[in-house]
Structure formats: structure tokens, C-alpha cells
From TrEMBL:
This is LysR substrate-binding domain-containing protein. InterPro entries: LysR_HTH_N, LysR_subst-bd, WH-like_DNA-bd_sf, WH_DNA-bd_sf. Residues 23-57 form a coiled coil. It comes from Herbaspirillum lusitanum. Keywords: Coiled coil, DNA-binding, Transcription, Transcription regulation.
Length: 301
């Protein structure tokens, strides 16, 4: 069984460039260091280091293992530090991911802010990621929470998905588009239009949902000459490449030159879900409860 000590010794040897210098830095006997590395290689059945009296050299397998071992040790150090902070004062960092199509406009942004007020020692580290990527990151422990557009196609054993609300959809059009002055549009009327966002075969989220609804209306979206699944799709609309169907909240982050027309298909809504691990740490679980309570207050108010 590979131990954390063996990983530390291996990484230190590579960083120091020799067994002698590594032994000095670690305050251990060189013989003990050498024995641990031999046991590590024996357990893995892989040669990691070539060494002589003066220097060491990583094998190809050793280089790959070194990169991963260093990351594992960094993750452990971060996890231990955060656990100690939480133990002494309920403080820590919660890593939150959100889709570009889930802007932190009301009710999400204010809800996060209000929830944080009950956790004075906690801060949020916020990044953007696709719905599918969020689920993977949470499953593998690299993120704590996700705000995603459903559907998420791939299931993960440890990830809980809690639907928060659904949004009506609107059509984003270039300002000079013939349909931009309409008061409403039916999805079927967009059959001949070019879409700047198309689904990836392995990803869910907004573009997948839009394509499914278009298929239900008898057509598949025609691709524009420039496409994007990110927030930049509104820039492509503004530049006149085509149109996009987006949630109503994306009007709040729009660029100039884009007009939004409501869809007449009122049953076409886009759900937003909160994702987290079922076995989340106590701090994350408490924050989830506080945030969900805030979302319910917004919905009721």
C-alpha cells in the first residue's frame, strides 16, 4: 500500500535532485529514504528513478507519477489546513462552480450573499464551468457546489442535484434582425434561422435542452458560421452571426446590439439546479441549507 510518506519522500528527492540533499531536508537517514523508494517501486512494480552515486534521473513513468504525486500532496495539505480552520472557528473556503448560462443575477447572487452572512469565517471561491464538468469536479472532490443548467447527462454516484427554479426562455437576436421587433416568437418560426450555439454530443446543459425542444418542434437548429457554448454566444449574436435561445436572466449580462424577444412556447423552461456531494462536509451541508432557504424566500416573495 502506497503511503503519504513515500509520496513525500519521492517528491522531495526529485525536487532536491539527489538522495543526499533530500535526506538533509527531511532530517532522515539516506538509507531510510532509499528503502522507502524501493518499497514504493516494488508496490507499483514500476521503475521511477534511475540513480547513481551523484545524481538521479526520472524515468518516463516517474515523471508522470511525480506530477500526480505532487498534486496529491498539495491537495492533502489544503484539505488538512481547511479542516483545521473549520475545527477552530467554523471558517473555510467553499468552492462554487456555475455555468456561464447561470449568471449570478437575482435570485442567485443575492441569495449567496445573504447565506454567507450566517457564516462569518467562510468565503466563496467562484469559477465558471459547464454543467457536465461541474458534476465531475464535485464527484472527484475538486469543487463543493455547482449551479448548473439541466439536464446533466452523466450520472455520478455521490452528486445530489436539487432543482431550484425554472426560467422562461427568450430569443436573442441582432438588433437589425427582421424578427427583432416582434412581441413574441414561436419556436417553429426559427426553423430557417442560424443558431450560434449547438449541443456537444457528450454534454447536457442549455444547448442540449434547446436542441431537444427544437427537435420536438420538427427541426434541428442550423449552425451559424461561428458558434459558441459559452457566454460569448451573445457577442456572436451582436456581431450578426445568428440567433440564440437563452434563459431570461441572460438579458442582465447582455452586450450592446442584442434584442430579446419572448418565446410563445410558455412550457419551454430551463431548470437551474444546485449540485453538491451527498457526503459533503458539515460546513458545506450547512451552507447548502442556508442558501436553499434563501432561494425559497425569493420564490415566495
Amino acid at each position: 500500500m502506497i503511503s503519504i510518506r513515500q509520496l513525500r519522500y519521492f517528491v522531495e528527492i526529485v525536487a532536491a535532485g539527489s538522495y543526499t540533499r533530500a535526506a538533509e531536508r527531511l532530517y532522515v537517514a539516506q538509507s531510510a529514504l532509499s528503502r522507502q523508494i524501493k518499497e514504493l517501486e516494488a508496490d507499483m512494480d514500476v521503475l521511477l528513478l534511475r540513480r547513481d552515486a551523484k545524481q538521479i534521473e526520472l524515468t518516463l513513468a516517474g515523471q508522470d507519477f511525480y506530477d500526480k504525486a505532487r498534486k496529491i500532496l498539495d491537495d492533502i495539505e489544503q484539505a488538512v489546513g481547511q479542516a483545521r480552520q473549520i475545527a477552530v472557528g467554523g471558517s473555510g473556503v467553499i468552492r462554487l462552480l456555475h455555468s456561464t448560462s447561470v449568471p449570478l443575477t437575482p435570485p442567485l447572487g443575492p441569495g449567496l450573499n445573504l447565506a454567507l452572512q450566517g457564516f462569518p469565517g467562510v468565503s466563496l471561491e467562484i469559477s465558471q464551468a459547464s454543467s457536465e464538468h461541474q458534476a465531475q469536479e464535485i464527484e472527484e472532490g475538486r469543487a463543493d457546489l455547482g449551479l448548473a443548467r439541466l439536464p446533466v447527462l452523466r450520472t455520478h454516484a455521490h452528486v445530489e442535484m436539487l432543482e431550484l427554479y425554472s426560467e422562461q426562455m427568450v430569443v436573442a437576436l441582432p438588433q437589425q434582425h427582421p424578427l427583432a421587433r416582434r412581441r413574441g416568437l414561436a419556436l417553429a418560426e426559427l426553423r430557417e434561422q442560424r443558431f450560434v450555439s449547438l449541443p456537444h454530443k457528450a454534454r447536457g446543459g442549455l444547448s442540449y435542452l434547446v436542441a431537444q425542444q427544437c427537435i420536438a418542434s420538427g427541426f434541428f437548429p442550423v449552425a451559424a458560421r461561428a458558434t459558441s457554448r459559452k457566454a460569448s454566444l451573445l457577442s456572436l449574436v451582436s456581431a450578426g452571426f445568428g440567433i440564440a435561445i437563452v434563459p431570461r436572466s441572460m438579458r442582465e449580462i447582455s452586450v450592446s446590439g442584442v434584442l430579446f424577444v419572448p418565446l410563445k412556447d410558455e412550457d419551454f423552461c430551463s431548470p437551474v439546479a444546485l449540485m453538491y456531494r451527498r457526503d459533503a462536509p458539515a460546513l458545506v451541508a450547512k451552507f447548502v441549507a442556508a442558501f436553499v432557504a434563501q432561494q425559497k424566500l425569493f420564490a415566495d416573495g
